[in-house]
Specification:
Largest sheet: none
Radius of gyration: 23 Å
Number of helices: 5
Number of strands: 0
Length: 111
């Protein structure tokens, strides 16, 4: 896998960053699909009814509350899915519960 090559060449920390980007980007498909669906429903209602004075009145509906609930559920599922994926990669790269040793002036010996 290309992500393993990134982990080997740049290190696991950078590979985790790219894993997160790939995971997050792939999960963005769902809220965009739901948002577009709600948008088209609102626009079609506005076009059919023509009772609204403006487009802003047409898009201010209960569907926005439904979309907010969908986003809250999506966010929870995204985070839980990422935790599983993060643990899977940590086990694969043998870095579970790994803490990086940072160099500080106190750790360095004078030559």
């Amino acid at each position: 896998k290309p992500i393993d090559q990134i982990a080997y060449y740049f290190g696991e920390q950078k590979a985790f960053y790219f894993c997160w980007l790939i995971h997050y980007t792939s999960w963005l498909i769902w809220p965009s699909f739901i948002g577009l669906l709600i948008y088209f429903i609102q626009v079609s209602r506005w076009k059919l009814e023509q009772n609204s004075d403006s487009y802003d009145d047409a898009t201010d509906s209960a569907l926005n509350c439904l979309y907010s609930v969908c986003i809250a559920i999506w966010t929870t599922l995204l985070v839980e899915s990422w935790k599983q994926k993060e643990n899977w990669f940590a086990n694969r790269w043998l870095v579970k519960n790994f803490e990086a040793n940072h160099l500080t002036e106190g750790n360095l010996k004078q030559a």
